[in-house]
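Researcher: Next entry in the queue.
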Amino acid sequence: MAIRVEPSPVEEARAGSSAALGELYSQYGPALFRLAYRLTASKEDAEDVVHDVFVGLPEALQGYEERGRHDAWLRRLTARMSLMRLRSNRRRGDVRLEDDQLGTEPVRDDRSDVERAVNTLPEPLRSVVVLKEIEGYSHAEIGALLGISAVASRVRLMRAMSRLRRTLGGSR
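Model: Structure for this entry, 172 residues:
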């Protein structure tokens, strides 16, 4: 008697199942949004990034080799798309208004001083802090994502931490 193994949502999404895509969105969407928001520091950009990730997911899954966990692969994909969005905004010269200036609610009402301080960092420093300290990537992985060396990643992290200490030390 053969045991029938049900296909995973990843396999079904790869085959084009919208129900499986919805299931993956329900399972991973909020975490991917938080990552995109931390990297872009913009609710609208984070929403766009997550939307783009899931719209392109069936095609992206064609190249997914299923080494490691698929949630880690989704986080890397989201981080890359967030960084591409930041570069695109910078090339176009977009000026981002803070959520407070727009009169909209921030992602969390109880954002801490640390979150606010991280959001004030320049994008290259903020990206390294988010990827290393929040998401747990190694400096080699960060370097690969950002197109910099692992040493440059370490230097950016040290600079970011120095700025955060000054910012948080002066506000308390």
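Model: The domain at 1-104 is CATH 1.10.1740.10 (Rna Polymerase Sigma Factor; Chain: A).
Researcher: Noted, moving on.
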